[in-house]
Amino acid sequence: MNGKRGRPQRAPNSGGHRRDPLWVAALLHRISGLALAAFLPLHFLVFALVLKSEAALEGFLRWTKNPAVKLAEMGLVFLLTLHLLGGIRILLLENLPWFAGHKQLVAGALLTASMLALVFLVRAA
Amino acid sequence: MNVRLYVLQRVSAAVMAPLLLIHLGVIFYASNRGLSAADLLARTRGSLLWGAFYATFVVAAATHAAIGVRVVASEWTRWHGAALERLMWACGLLLVALGLTAVAAVVLV
Predict the structure, then answer these.
(1) Which residues pair with A2 in a beta bridge?
(2) CA distance to partner chain B, nearest, from residue A53 (Å)
(3) From the list B17, B65, B98, which residue is nearest A84 (CB)?
(4) Is the dihedral of CA A26, A30, A31, A33 positive or negative?
(5) B52 touches chain A (CB under 8 A)
(6) pLDDT at B19 over 60
(7) Torsion-angle region of residue A58: left (phi > 0), alpha (psi -120 to 50) or beta?
(8) Chain B contact probe: residue of A32, A42, A45, A50 with most B CBs at under 10 A
(9) Of B28, B65, B105, the CB nearest to A120
(10) Chain A neighbors of B98, CB-CB under 8 A
(11) pTM, whole model, 2 decimals?
(12) Cβ atoms of A73 and B30 closer than 8 Å
């Protein structure tokens, strides 16, 4: 069915909005935020190992040199960068006058997060 | 989400943004050198500056994460009212307690 301006109108709950890059960005922001929130307690517990002994922390840090752990850390760098840049976009969106280009900002955030994660892996390898 | 939580979520995000950039810088610096406990503790032990940096980071991250988890739970689950409040406070207090313990461990011990 076409509206007055000839644009196809979506039926309610058709799910078409889920193809919008800004909806995908909101979803990715939530997923990355949840993943980081789940990771934080483990991150803190690692540094609390110092309370046991410095050697306990050293032993854990040696274990993180495992390639599988480096890959997981690369994923964390990706999620952290994506969440940071996505959050900055939201702050800009809410505090500045509307400007075109938010979809490009989302694409830029994804690209930057991917690049930084790869650079991290290359440096850490 | 009420206005108080909305503002807290945005303020904690604004506080964390520069701290996260510094944290990412430290992660990249450490990844190149190969992180050791001795290197890490040499930087943080007895440092008021790093202690304040990480304590601020922990409180902002715990606030931001707790409110964020509450938002996602309200959107993706049937939880509402007091259950959401309990989830948010549990998440926030757990992160503050573990985070400040970790900061104390690397700065004070």
Answers:
(1) A8
(2) 10
(3) B17
(4) positive
(5) no
(6) yes
(7) alpha
(8) A50
(9) B28
(10) 40-41, 44-45, 48
(11) 0.89
(12) no
End-to-end Cα spacing for chain B? 39
Mark yes or no for CB contact A43/B102 under 8 Å. yes
| Residue B31 sits at the chain A interface (C-beta within 8 Å) | yes
> CB contact, 8 Å: A125 with chain B?
no
For A37, nearest residue in chain B (alpha carbons): B65
Of B27, B23, B97, B92, nearest to B64 by C-alpha is B92
Q: For B70-88, b where at least 16 C-beta lie within 10 A, e where not — what string?
A: bbbbbeeeeeeeeebeebb
Residue A124 near residue A66, CB atoms below 8 Å: no
CA distance A18 to B41: 46
Q: Which residues lie below 8 Å from residue B17, measured CB to CB, with a gap of 6+? A: A84, A87, A88, A91
Greatest extent of chain A over all pairs of C-alpha atoms, in Å: 72
Q: What is the pLDDT of residue A12?
A: 63
Prediction ipTM score: 0.94
What is the identity of the amino acid at B7? V
Least trusted range by pLDDT, from A37-46, A54-63, A92-101, B55-64: A92-101
Say what the pLDDT of residue A11 is.
61
pLDDT at A112 over 50: yes
Tell me how far apart the alpha carbons of residues A95 and A98 are, in angstroms, rounded to a whole number. Answer: 9
The runs of H, that is alpha helices, within chain B are 3-33, 37-44, 48-76, 82-107
Whole-angstrom distance, CA of residue B102 vs CA of residue A86: 27
Contact of A27 with chain B, judged by CB distance below 8 Å, is answered with no
